[in-house]
User: What shape does this take?
Amino acid sequence: MDPIPARVTAAAVWTGSGVDVRTVPIPELGPGEVLVRVRLATVCGSDLHTVTGRRSAACPSVLGHEAVGDVVAVGEGADIPVGQRIIWSVTVVCGVCSRCRSGLSAKCLSVRKVGHEAFDGDWPLSGSYAAHLVLPRGTTIAVVPETLSDAVAAPAACATATVMATLEAAGELTGRHVLINGAGMLGLTAVAACAAAGADVQVVDRNVDRMALVPDFGGRASDGGPVDVAIDYTGSSAAVSAALGRLDIGGTLVLAGSVTPGPALAVDPETVVRQWLTITGVHNYEPRHLHQAVDFLDRTREQYPWEALVVSPVPLKQIASALRSPPSGKLRTAICP
Assistant: This one.
């Protein structure tokens, strides 16, 4: 095992009432584990929901699951060189249960999640709002090419990879009319990906500032007409219902934003049958989607202004200032531990 450069590190621990930046020990690495020095972490909207009380989470915990970092030490059997710049998956999976074997590792029977685990458990350094974190065996790791900046690469671990999964569920996109509900980081990424695939992309979002970003990523405001594919990142039952009502014959509705309880959605089975509709859901993503995310961002780095969506990072000691909604024209705040 490579030597660990220090025995302690700094971590921002979510306490339920705020974040407490602490000096904490770095554990000995077990087989297959990887120690990463975090270069930059972006703040996903789900973490904002946690700190504002809209989403339950392990507490205390180190939040953060969108980040890029350098490998500084590895446990026995870890197949990644020290010094490599990487991103990593949100999910940590066993690889052998029935779900993993069937291709649904995102729903592994023993799944654990980066930035979602208890600080007082057996994986305290699980989140990226820290100078270092530990990646257990079962974490998917993707190498970041030199052509991608940290600010562009970090959101790939959640937003971009999730979009890759939703687009796979949506099916063929070339020449199709696509509706995207929500122009946040996921929605805008989906706009760009669908446009790059040759789709006509319409967007619905009540936020005027976010809608102003849409043309730069290949989309346009909705015209209210029928669509072949609708993808929802809002989780709003009203928005989902409106999207379902716009599907043309053979249309597909992909739900990705409905991750908290909400009002039930009325679905007419006869309409689904007669119009040959498909309704499907996506939660998290598979390993291939993380690699696809990196490839997509690298391939489109000069086509779309990805870096302009991320606020300049603040140091870890100022993390409280980053755990709030980004300013107009931005979609992610960032932390540089």
About this structure: The chain has two domains: 8-147+301-336, 169-281. The first helix runs from residue 45 to 51. The mean pLDDT is 96. The CA atoms of residues 2 and 215 lie 48 Å apart.
